[in-house]
Amino acid sequence: MNRHLSPNLVPVAALAAAAVLSLPAAAQDMKFLRIGTGSISGVYFPVGGLIASAISHPPGASLCGQGGSCGVPGLVAVAQASRGSVANVRQIAAGRIESALVQADIAYFAVKGVGLFSGAKAVPGLRAIANLYPEAVHVVVRKKSRIRAIRDLRRKRVSLDLKGSGTRAIANLVLKEYGIDAKSLRQRNSQVGPAVDRLGAGSIDAFFFVGGFPAPSIARLARDVPLRLLPISGEPAAAIRKADPFLAPVIVPASVYDRMEETRTLAVGALWTVSDKVDADLVYGITRALWHPTSRLILDQGPPPVRRIRLKNALKGVAIPLHEGAQRFYREKGLMAKPTSKAEPVPKAKPQTPAKPAPKS
Ligand code: GLU
């Protein structure tokens, strides 16, 4: 003991030393997980944020069952804004993020190496954790606009979203199947937030957004300005579904956005994905944390699409392999059969159940 230290200071110094000594151990126990989402005005961003809250459990957080979340001990997960599905998959491939929200079609194309992900651009290591909710193809115009159908978009000022978004990929497909050359449009491309503002201000005529419904930013505009969704149905819808079988018919009910009519369109599942490089025990832990009953309280704080996330839909429309850690969880829950061979089980690709059954037409 240093005799020059005043007796009062001794315990403080000892505590400080103990704290310093214990730091490396605590730091070693910390794990980080970055979740790529989309625009801060979209639906992915709040979904990713709420999932991050549900699965995190940094040292010192209130205990599970005592007011705290039931996340993975030592885990800090963060949601990052991004350009959307395509960019998210590329970021995972580059090792810049570990996990992301991705449209089911984009995830499949990435793993199979087709379309935007052909050849060397394939991302075979992308794995699923869960299907979350359906994302509807919104093509939004003002109700008083003379644009009543996709065909009327020719030469109009339209936002197809940015490159790297899943919205842009689907917008291009929709335009193609309706026989519209995207170059014939006066493109004013932006993410959903600025697109909503510009439609409200009258500086664009229409915008595409593929996302859960009601999307909060569109719902806000609908309260001020009557809006219309352009329908995607009939022959062109069938052709679109042939090119992208992950799109299923859906009806956006009249009640979803203020003063909007019921609209037939297409929807794709939103998947929570992760890199196959992430440790199986950690993925098991975050899968279990997502579906822990306590997480319901967290998800229910989000916009309506987040509130509809259910375990019974977790494997619907998942056509890429589930991460080994997620498989372990679903097997324990009896949602997946025990493996019979060494081959990686891929759940059967079924389209995401539409929010409402599509009428026969
Ligand atoms: N599905 C959209 C995309 O991949 C993003 C939707 C959202 O931000 O909620 O671009």
Tell me what you see in this structure:
Mean pLDDT is 90; it is low at 1-20 and 348-361. Strands 1, 2, 3, 4, 5, 6, 7, 8, 9 and 10 form a ten-stranded mixed sheet that branches. Helix 2 (44-55) packs antiparallel against helix 10 (293-299), helix 6 packs parallel to helix 7 and helix 9 packs across helix 12. The chain folds into two domains: 11-133 and 270-332, Periplasmic binding protein-like II (D-Maltodextrin-Binding Protein, domain 2, 3-Layer(aba) Sandwich), CATH 3.40.190.10; 136-268, Periplasmic binding protein-like II (D-Maltodextrin-Binding Protein, domain 2, 3-Layer(aba) Sandwich). With 361 residues, the protein is of the alpha/beta class. It is 34% helix and 18% strand. The chain has helices at 9-29, 44-55, 85-93, 104-112, 166-177, 192-201, 216-224, 234-243, 280-290, 293-299, 304-307, 324-332, and strands at residues 31-36, 75-80, 99-103, 126-142, 157-159, 186-187, 206-211, 227-229, 248-252, 263-275. The structure holds glutamic acid. The site of glutamic acid has 14 residues, from helix 5 and strand 7.
The count of helical stretches stands at 12
Estimate nothing, just give the exact number of structural domains: 2
Question: Stretches where pLDDT falls below 50 for ≥5 residues?
Answer: 1-20, 348-361
Taking the alpha carbons of the first and last residues, their distance comes to 87 Å
Report the CATH superfamily of the largest domain.
Answer: Periplasmic binding protein-like II
Report the count of strand segments: 10
Structural Rg: 23 Å
Order of helices and strands: HEHEHEHEEHEHEHEHEEHHHH
Chemical compounds bound to the protein: glutamic acid
Tell me roughly what share of residues is in helical segments: 25-40%
Beta-strand residue fraction: 15-25%
CATH class call of the largest domain:
Alpha Beta
